[in-house]
Design brief:
Order of helices and strands: EEEHEHEHEHEHEHEHHEHH
Keywords: NADP, Oxidoreductase
Helix content: 25-40%
Family: Belongs to the aldo/keto reductase family.
Structural class: alpha/beta
Mean pLDDT: 96
Largest sheet: 8 strands, parallel
Pfam families: Aldo_ket_red
Strand content: 5-15%
Low-confidence stretches: none
CATH superfamily: NADP-dependent oxidoreductase domain
Protein name: Glyoxal reductase
Organism: Lysinibacillus contaminans
Shape: globular
């Protein structure tokens, strides 16, 4: 499985395991352990998912059974926007560590920029955690160019990652170009549009051509754009499929055809309108 090098030299797997909308509990813990056994080394959760405890149990079980060491894993969580003051953000990080049962995270993100929230103060708290050596990298999620410009003008640590909604219907070229220019790694959430992309005719045609699933075509599209991708599945066979995307290459023409599907269609909230209230 490939990886990318973040702007602080840290290696991050190109394909991770997402747990958005997965209820907390033993099924989740078992799925996380299974994902690690299958080969995933990156696990992505968030405060608002309310499943950090199950994720942590799965991670710790995998470590206890010798499937992996903590150092081999890349664990991400995110602070929600009901706690964006400096002190509340510090407390949220401690809470996430406690729920996960871990000593540190590899990546900690501000989940959304908000409309009337002070994400700069929250990011300064992330900078403090990073400078204290308690997190290996920090970043943001769902930030558009003007959010990033505002952040970079008032802080000192350039975000390592900007996790955004990204897929052929929403290519976010302006955001990705800005991130490339400033050394910020783009990561895709909901890369399969909650499964809606799997019915697209072009993607199905490419799946037949390469003897792959439609999901594998989309995930391959992500990594060929150098975008980290974190699909969600609870099915062991699909866990394996989602990692099996490094034995074929889409042509430049096919990548352009997939890019041409861009029409601004979202399956999640618009960061310009979403205010968490």
């Amino acid at each position: 499985m490939g990886s990318v090098t973040l702007n602080n030299g840290l290696e991050m797997p190109l394909v991770g395991y997402g747990v958005f909308r997965v209820p907390d509990g033993e099924d989740l813990a078992e799925a996380v352990k299974m994902a690690i056994a299958t080969g995933y080394r990156s696990i992505d959760t968030a405060q608002i998912y309310r499943n950090e405890e199950g994720v942590g149990r799965g991670i710790r079980a995998a470590i206890a059974e010798g499937l992996v060491t903590r150092e081999e894993l890349f664990v991400t969580s995110k602070v929600w926007n009901d706690g964006l003051s400096y002190e509340e953000t510090l407390a949220a990080y401690d809470s996430s560590l406690e729920k996960l049962g871990l000593d540190y995270l590899d990546l900690y993100l501000i989940h959304w920029p908000g409309i009337d929230t002070n994400h700069v103060e929250a990011y300064k708290a992330l900078e403090q955690i990073y400078q204290d050596g308690r997190v290996r990298s920090i970043g943001v999620s769902n930030f558009h160019v003007h959010h990033l410009e505002n952040l970079l003008a008032q802080t000192t640590v350039v975000p390592a990652v900007n996790q955004i909604e990204f897929h052929p219907h929403l290519t976010q070229e302006e955001v990705r170009a800005y991130c490339r220019e400033h050394g910020i790694q783009v990561e895709a959430w909901s890369p399969l549009m909650n499964g809606a992309l799997l019915e697209e005719e072009l993607i199905q045609q490419l799946a037949v051509k390469y003897d792959k699933t439609p999901a594998q075509i989309v995930l391959r599209y992500d990594v060929q754009h150098n975008v980290v991708t974190i699909p969600k599945t609870m099915t062991p066979s699909r866990m394996k499929e989602n990692l099996s995307i490094f034995d074929f290459v889409l042509t430049d023409e096919e990548m352009a055809q997939l890019d041409a599907m861009n029409d601004g269609l979202r399956c999640g909230p618009d960061p310009e309108k979403f205010n968490f209230k």
